[in-house]
Structure of MFS family permease:
Amino acid sequence: MSVPAMPSGSAAPPGQPRKAATAAWIGSALEYYDFFIYGSAAALIFPEVFFDESDPATATLLSLATFGVAYAARPVGALVLGHFGDRAGRKKIMVFTLMLMGLSTFLIGCLPTRDQVGGLAPVLLVLCRVLQGISAAGEQASANSMTLEHAPPGRRGFFTSFTLSGTQGGQLLATLVFIPVAAMPEDQLLSWGWRLPFWLSVAVAVVGWVIRRKLDETPAFARQAAAEGVARMPLVVLLREHWADVLRVIAAALVASVSTIFTVWALAYATSDAVGMSRTAMLWVGALANVVALAAIPLWATLSDRIGRRPVFLIGAAGSSVTMFLYLWAVSTGSYPLTFLTGILCFGVVYSAANGVWPAFYGEMFATRVRLSGVAVGTQIGFAAAGFAVTFAAQIAGPGGDDWSAVALFTAALCVPPVIAAVSARETHRVPTEALGERAEPGVARPEKVTA
């Protein structure tokens, strides 16, 4: 049975789409600040604090593996949080994930080091990282669903892109916080300085809670609950009616490997003895790339509202495989101008095409009653593979960790499934929100319903 059209007067109140987008942006920025400071610490600090200093190569490999642990926990978090998000609503999940992320990140800053408690230290680190992964699993899916279902006709791409702009804002904030921390004297940095960015998560949680608790539930979810009721087992409905789209999202989500390789592996490689670039300079590469991404993401998303999701996503996925090769080559030369230029091009401009459009692209594949589950499960399984791409890259780079071309080819190979997924997907940018997830005849698109 299809969901009836929203009756007159049940649309989102004036200003609510903007409020939802703002809450998604700020909440995602604050939450992913927590998530990305771990990535910087895993590349620069944790090999010496939590792992065996006598074998730097192995310590770095193990530290990068803990970065991937959160991605392994994400599918589990997606199953649980997706279920409750489609039953209890988007708002409750958005508040819960923010508080869980803030707590787990604060606890990382309180952990004892390997010198203090031995092998227990990395175990506690992994447990906190698992909690971060569970939180992140529900964050983007709930924020995406919230903004998509509040968005006015013809602008879903633009409004949902605020979630990813927020993610980039969080990464930028994390990088800016780590720049002065990384510049501290070595003894202060390794003893207490690295803890400061993690302790700031308390402020992150408080600010995010104040913003999100005032947000209204979406009209689409309220209408669904009133007209048909929520699905008792959303995952069963999802896998029965939308299994092909779940597989498509899993494949498309592998494009996130570009982000993890750029953010973590390339940072570790550039600052290793093989290249010898400074920590501060490489952190500035990430910072400037994210500044550009903050502008590029809404522009790409707006373009997708005009020409469609698929062509914009394809630009990002296929283009990233080429520009990542250029970036890693530039890093290998040790040239700061080349590294800054190619880093901004790769991550700030080209990757932003796929990154900015996927919230709408994936969310529009599913009906309201399973949207949060569909996006959460599909993306988090794909993101899990992307998270461990860093660990595989460290192995592929060889004993010396300097085979950048092999890592570039590996990243390009991971961009192939997203391209195939996008080519095989339906174009949905003009399908009315209430009709999303319905099985229309091939080649037949419904006109967008526009209201004053």
